[in-house]
Amino acid sequence: MPGAIEDSLKGYVFTVQEFGRLSAIAIAGIFRKPYYIQETFYYLDHIGVGSLFILALTGLFTGMVLTLQGAIQLQPFGAVPYVSRLVSTSVVRELGPVLAALMLAGRVGTGIASELASMQVTEQIDALRAEGTDPIKKLVTPRLVATLVMVPILTIITNGIAMAGGYFIARLYLSIDSFFYWTWAFEALRPMDLVYGVIKPLVFGFIICMVGCYAGLTSTGGTVGVGHSTTQAMVTSSILILMSDFFMTKLFIYLG
Fold first, then answer.
1. By CB count within 10 A, which of 19, 128, 241, 242 is most buried?
2. What confidence category does residue 212 fall into, taking pLDDT thresholds of 50, 70 and 90?
3. Count of Cβ atoms closer than 10 Å to residue 190 Cβ
4. Whether 66 contacts 91, CB under 8 Å
5. Are 226 and 219 in contact (CB under 8 A)?
6. Model confidence over 2-51: pLDDT tens digits?
7. Is 249 exposed, middle or buried (0-12, 13-18, 19+ CB in 10 A)?
8. How far is the first Cα of the chain from the last one, in angstroms, to the nearest whole number?
9. Of 225 and 161, which is predicted with more confidence?
10. Which has the closest alpha carbon to 25: 139, 172, 173, 123?
11. What does the H/E/C string look like for the chain?
């Protein structure tokens, strides 16, 4: 039993070590030639435009539900007109970045894992190495750049749509004045909330991309391994997103 535990710990340490090595090589590839501009723009379009609809729906219904539930909680205190403060702070600080990241983990992260896993099991990556091409530079770095650019942008769009969804319910269902809603919504936000609302998506985007790439590049076992890698990418990235969100929130509260 102790030997099994020791082997398991060694396996986890090796995984973390290899993940860190892959991440370092991918980041270093951003600053050296060749840059693979065409591939980067392809992934920018695939990640950004391709995910816009699902994130728009996520933001819309999140804002609507949050407004309905917030109004119920504020009604005993006669503070229903100030529900926009609850919506804006909750969305920008927490719900927007986390929900957008989880949706992107399901769409983008699993897609990256399945693509690279398919290339791995069909020996296409070995063929790239045989041709003298760095597979990490060609396959991982463009995806990383695209993810780091698009995830914050998509999160900002999700936040805006969520606040608009909240306004829709506040205006039509709660009869809150438009000027009153938007005034208190923006007044509740601090400049650092907007900064933190961009830092979190950067971290989440890094997690989504690199976990998907690592799961795909380490895939084994043929087509069964492709499915396993895809599932592993989704589960691992979701857990890491929630864990990192907690620690970043704790850090931001400490920093004030």
1. 241
2. very high
3. 13
4. yes
5. yes
6. 666 666 777 788 888 999 999 999 999 999 888 889 999 999 999 988 89
7. middle
8. 46
9. 161
10. 139
11. CHHHHHHHHHHHHHHHHHHHHHHHHHHHHCCCCCCCHHHHHHHHHHHHHHHHHHHHHHHHHHHHHHHHHHHHHHHHHCCHHHHHHHHHHHHHHHHHHHHHHHHHHHHHHHHHHHHHHHHHHCCHHHHHHHCCCCHHHHHHHHHHHHHHHHHHHHHHHHHHHHHHHHHHHHHHCCCCCHHHHHHHHHHCCCHHHHHHHHHHHHHHHHHHHHHHHHHHHCCCCHHHHHHHHHHHHHHHHHHHHHHHHHHHHHHHHHHC
Of the candidates 230, 174, 18, 203, the residue with the CA atom closest to the CA atom of residue 100: 203
Write the pLDDT tens digit of every residue in 83-92: 999 999 999 9
Tokens of 153: 């942008």
- Measured CA to CA, the distance from residue 13 to residue 18 in angstroms comes to 9
**C-alpha–C-alpha distance, residues 39 and 53, integer Å:** 22
Q: Please indicate, yes or no, whether the overall pTM of this predicted structure exceeds 0.85.
A: yes
pLDDT(256) > 70? no
Amino acid in position 83? V
Each residue's pLDDT tens digit, 112-143: 999 999 999 888 998 988 888 899 999 999 99
Whether a cis peptide bond, with omega within 30° of 0, leads into 142 is no
CA atoms within 13 A on the CB side of 79: 12
How many CB atoms within 10 Å of residue 89? 16
